[in-house]
Design a protein that fits this description.
The chain is α+β, with helices and mostly antiparallel strands and about 270 residues long. It folds into 2 domains: about 100 residues, no CATH class; about 160 residues, Nucleoside Triphosphate Pyrophosphohydrolase. It contains 6 helices and 13 strands. Strands 6, 7, 8, 9, 10, 11, 12 and 13 form an 8-stranded mixed β-sheet that branches. Strand 3 and strand 4 form a beta hairpin. The longest helix has 15 residues. It is elongated and about 65 Å long.
């Protein structure tokens, strides 16, 4: 038998049934699943939509948990479920397999030496961007080059603080949150949505220009980084800003360059 819990959403007063197979509930109780921050945020956003009486006319009746993945520390990392939702006009089902992982931050770090220092934006061949190379089995690519980024994991201290911590963990660069410029479009709310057809993830983008010495540049190129205890094996790569679009398949990197350009155009 499956375990289940019925929730009453506060704004819309919708009765939502959460069902969970017994095998999953034995490891991760339903009460703990509904407290998973990304799930709680999903429920709140759904409740707001339903209470607003969207013209789309959708009714969501239940969610069925399909899998729960936990981090080594024992906290829930990822949650996958299927929704029982229909269009109220004709009862036709609404596609709704959902993968929850929560928000993330991505950082565009532009480096130059003092001799190359100039007002922004420079867009010169001498400006370098910090990228990280690591295995990404979902793709799969065992040496994917991408922008430094990371999940929020319920971090406190705001988005900028989380971005600064991720930078330090992934690259070893000590850049304070107050040095990071938020280049996320105001219209994006909490962040941009890379795959809204199946995933709740939103990404907030930050950028930073930093003057370093030639010796520091030499030390960064090829440096080994990442949290070894968490299985991260990261190698730093420096590429010219003007070559970034040909140096990675990472959509976040290309989006960040565009957002940085738009940010500087508004200054």
């Amino acid at each position: 038998m499956s375990a289940q819990q019925t929730l009453t959403l506060a704004k819309s007063r919708t009765q939502l049934r959460v069902e969970c197979p017994a095998a999953i509930a034995a490891r991760t109780p339903v009460a703990r699943i509904v407290q998973f921050p990304p799930f709680a945020q999903w429920l709140e956003a759904l409740d707001t939509q339903l209470a607003a009486g969207s013209e789309a006319g959708v009714a969501v009746r239940a969610v069925t948990i399909q899998s729960v993945d936990e981090f080594r520390a024992g906290s829930i990392g990822f949650l996958k479920f299927a929704t029982d939702a229909v269009h109220t006009a004709d009862g036709a089902p609404v596609p709704g397999v959902v993968f929850l992982r929560g928000g993330a931050v991505a950082m565009l770090v532009i480096l130059r030496t003092r001799a190359r220092d100039r007002p922004v934006p420079s867009w010169e061949d001498t400006d370098l961007v910090v990228l990280v190379e690591q295995p990404r089995l979902a793709v799969p690519d065992l040496a994917l080059v991408e922008l430094p980024a990371g999940m929020l994991d319920g971090a406190t201290g705001g988005f900028a603080g989380a971005a600064a911590r991720e930078l330090r963990e992934e690259t070893g660069l000590a850049i304070g949150g107050d040095e990071l410029v938020d280049i996320t479009p105001p219209s994006a709310g909490r962040g941009l949505l890379p795959s809204p057809g199946a995933c709740d993830e939103f990404i907030r983008f930050y950028a930073c220009e930093k003057v370093v010495s030639e010796a520091e540049l030499d030390k960064l190129q090829g440096r080994l980084a990442g949290l070894r205890a968490e299985g991260e094996r990261i190698t730093l790569r420096l590429v010219r800003l003007c070559d970034l679009w040909t140096s990675t398949r990472d959509l976040q990197a290309l989006a960040a360059v565009h957002l940085w350009d738009q940010h500087n155009r508004r200054q």
